[in-house]
Design brief:
Radius of gyration: 22 Å
Structural class: alpha/beta
Strand order of the largest sheet: 8-7-9-6-12-13-14-15-16-17
Shape: globular
Number of strands: 23
CATH class of the largest domain: Alpha Beta
Helix content: 25-40%
Distance between the termini: 50 Å
Number of helices: 16
């Protein structure tokens, strides 16, 4: 048993792990200046004592054996400075996850540029249906469980493997701490421009990741993705590929979509494995579900259990989540921020809501999409929508005008009715009101309005929810 102190405990991952460590028997404290619901009640119910300020007295009086430093914590934080001065044992969140939650359990790590949260949630639900009682850490609010992180009663732990860095003192990708027995590589593209200089730098991190897998483990990799195939030569372990193309070990055939979801046949090593009905749309989601199926198969689940695991899945919040009806239009909330993820989501929505107008709204918030890296790609991904609203750039002052994403240009080149929040408008606290007013004039009954953001869209999300019928 340890006494753990989590600096900046209010984040989804930090709070979830803190509560799980408390559940596992540790004494847990934390600090957060702005702790919001539902995390505030979640931590209180779990028995995690949270201090509302970063104060050296709080840290020292808690007498921690380990201080968990989130990657949002940097030098200058008062509690971190005191922990260093007193030579306390400071560890990153991925370190504590590897030690406290995964330990000697079978570790299933889901990595890739897109779909990590969804695929992790699918896999955790699949193993739950199979009676394996997995532990898990999901980077969102899962639809099939009440919590985003738990220890589990079984001997397997499913975790979202992020390639982002671990802490200010540890610039390795988080997944390097998770010692995967099954390593998933869903896809691979350039992202996280604040951490990686190039696609090749990201590939290097993934090569190191798959080299962690023991020879009796498994690498599950997207055989349709050229960048993924490029890193597979580094594997010292068995590899199974999945995809739509010939030659994949797990191959999806006869994929169809409707308002009820999707259906497909799955072949394994050139033999028909089974037919599946999924409640979610999108060719990409079918591949995410194949990962969950392949993991369940490896863990000994029957075909019937695997089919039940697919059919019973409920999407996490903010993953193509229908949140209600506004002005007769269906409103959907999605986390998508990379052009590929946005494009695939829009394709799935166009299939699901065939014949209806799609009004897309996108808030550029990530360190990559606020810059001009994906200027042309973002134009292409929004082709096919009927109207487009672009939110304010997050902290645009970080970049020169030539380095920043040009949202006005995107509206012009997509060529549909639209609005782009200007820098002056974006500097105002509730700039989402401008988009809300535009939507009031633009949206027609039976439209589909989709919000792409990992934030509150300048208050737009709150305004829409508040005024839903």
């Amino acid at each position: 048993m340890d006494r753990l102190y989590f600096i900046r405990v209010g984040g989804t991952a930090m709070g979830g792990v803190a509560a799980a460590c408390k559940q596992a028997g540790d004494i847990v404290f934390g600090s957060e200046q702005d702790l919001y619901e539902p995390m505030k009640s979640y931590l209180a119910d779990a028995g995690v004592h949270v201090y509302p300020t970063f104060d050296s007295a709080n840290l020292l009086s808690s007498k921690p054996t380990k201080v968990v430093v989130g990657n949002a914590v940097s030098r200058g934080n008062e509690e971190l400075e005191v922990a260093l001065e007193h030579r306390l044992d400071c560890v990153s969140l991925p370190q504590i996850i590897g030690e406290k939650l995964i330990g000697k359990q079978t570790s299933v790590v889901v990595a890739g540029t897109h779909g990590k949260t969804t695929t992790t949630a699918m896999t955790a639900n699949m193993l739950q249906v199979g009676g394996l009682e997995p532990g898990f850490l999901i980077g969102g609010v899962p639809g099939n469980f009440q919590v985003s992180c738990r220890t589990g009663a079984g001997n397997v732990f499913v975790i979202e493997g992020d390639e982002y860095d671990s802490a200010y003192f540890d610039k390795r990708s988080k997944f390097m701490h998770y010692r995967p027995d099954v390593a998933v590589v869903n896809n691979l593209e350039f992202d996280h421009a604040d951490i990686f200089d190039s696609l090749e730098a990201i590939k290097k991190s993934f090569r190191l990741y798959i080299r962690l897998v023991p020879r009796n483990g498994l690498v599950l990799a997207n055989g349709d993705d050229a960048n993924v195939r490029d890193v597979l030569a580094s594997s010292c372990s068995p590899v199974q590929t999945f995809g739509y193309s010939d030659g994949c070990d797990w191959q999806v055939k006869n994929f169809t979509e409707s308002v009820l979801g999707s259906t497909y046949d799955l072949w394994f090593q050139s033999v028909h494995f089974g037919s599946f009905a999924s409640p979610v749309n999108g060719r990409f989601n079918a591949l995410n579900m194949v990962v969950a199926t392949a993991v369940g198969h490896r863990m000994g689940m029957s075909l019937k259990q695997l089919q039940d695991g697919v059919q019973s899945y409920v999407s996490p919040k903010r993953r193509m989540q229908v949140v209600g009806t506004w002005k007769g239009a269906t409103v959907i909330d999605d986390f998508g921020h990379h052009p590929t993820a946005i494009k695939e989501t829009l394709s799935a929505l166009i299939s699901r809501y065939s014949g209806r107008r799609i009004v897309a709204c996108f808030e550029p918030r990530s360190n990559t999409t606020t810059r001009a890296f994906f200027q042309n790609e973002l134009v292409e991904c929004f082709k096919g929508v009927s109207a487009l609203g672009l939110g304010a750039l997050d902290r645009p002052q970080r970049y020169s005008e030539s380095e920043r994403l040009d949202t006005d240009r995107i509206i012009r080149e997509v060529g549909v009715p639209g609005i782009a929040i200007s820098l002056d408008q974006g500097s105002q606290k509730n700039w989402g009101e401008y988009l809300y007013t535009w939507l009031e004039k633009t949206v027609e009954p039976d439209d589909v309005v989709v919000l792409f953001s990992n934030g509150d869209f300048g208050g737009l999300r709150t305004l829409l929810v508040r005024n839903m019928s």
